[in-house]
Amino acid sequence: MRKKAILVTGAAGEMGHELLRRLAAEGRNRLLTLDVRPLPESLQGLEGHVHVVGDILDPQLLARLVSEYEIDVIYHLAALLSTRAEFTPETAHRVNVEGTMNLLRLAAEQSQWRGQPVQFLFPSSIAIYGLPDLESKALFNRVREWEWNQPRTMYGCNKIYGEMLGTYFSRYYRQLAPEQPVTIDFRCVRFPGLISAFTLPSGGTSDYGPEMIHAAAQGEPYACFVREDARIPFMTMPDAIRALLLLAGAPRERLSRLVYNVTAFSLSAGEIRDRVQRYFPDARITFRPDPKRQAIIDSWPADVDDSMARRDWGWEPEYDVERAFEEYLIPNIRQRYGR
Ligand code: AKB
Questions:
Q1: Of the candidates 286, 285, 307, 289, which has an alpha carbon nearest to the alpha carbon of residue 298?
Q2: Which is more confident, 166 or 183?
């Protein structure tokens, strides 16, 4: 008899950290997590939880998981982020595209075995957008899901293809086969830059936001790699996980799309500096733009329109910019660094 499990890939990463805490707090204790790294100590020992150190590109490992577990929900978080992916685009393609394809195939197989849908949650990103210049960025201020889908990074290309693959698997996979079609209940959220009080990002291009806040709290100088006026949307990590879980829990018939924008607030790098200095007046923040990373940020929208998510599944961030700093980021970060 196979054991029922919720599979979380990329579980040792920033999103995995918050998702596991949240799922465990909800008493969902049949978690099967997968990552190339062991889990951080703080996440070890969750009741009923099995962590596997391994690669989503390893077919034997995935086959073993399928033989041991009946997986009915997959949170596929594993990915190489936008900056790191530019240094190793082929590896990024393997992890972000082939890895996603492997997981979708696993979901299809599971759904056939079970004779029931497997839910597949996929975090996408504002990196799937690509505005050609700053004039367009100013003009098309809050982009909707179907606008400007012209990414300029490998990660953005991988993510938009992941959205398409998920949609294909959900609606058309084996559409001409004689047997019953497989059913994958694919649901996707396009996230803005995410900021956690408890973990630091690595390999992303929106990293300057969280890095600036964490550096100030540690009393360290920070040279921001984008201009003061560089603006993109952001969200706190708890809101990001809330969005994923809300979407996962929404009745299927309420969803008019498979891919949704979500956001909480839009800030320029200079505005983040100003907010940080309110709490840490001695913060030493300078701006030393890296033209290449700046160009990536310039291609991402200043804000996104998330009205579809609000309408279809009641999305609303808990943390607007004021609450994000005042109630979540600053107190928790102060405590973390003892300042
Ligand atoms: C990155 O910067 O690559 C990510 C993202 C916006 O998806 N944080």
A1: 289
A2: 166
The single residue of 155, 222, 260, 328 carrying the catalytic annotation is 155
Token duo for residue 167: 């949609």
Give me the mean pLDDT over the 217-230 stretch.
98
pLDDT above 90 (res 251): yes
Q: Transcribe 293-306 into DSSP letters.
A: HHHHHHHS-SEE--
Atom of ligand 1 nearest to the CA of 206: 2
Does 81 contact ligand 1 (Cβ within 6 A)? Answer: yes
Q: Is 301 in the pocket of ligand 1 (CB under 6 A)?
A: no
Q: Which CATH number fits domain 79-193+235-263+303-319: 3.40.605.10, 3.40.50.720, 1.10.10.10, 2.40.128.50?
A: 3.40.50.720
155 lines ligand 1 (CB under 6 A): yes
What is the value of pTM for the model shown?
A: 0.97
* pLDDT attached to residue 85: 98
- Cα 205 to ligand 1 centroid, rounded to whole Å: 6
Distance in Å, CA 201 to ligand 1 centroid: 9
Residue with tokens 């597949």: 120
d(CA 233, CA 255): 24
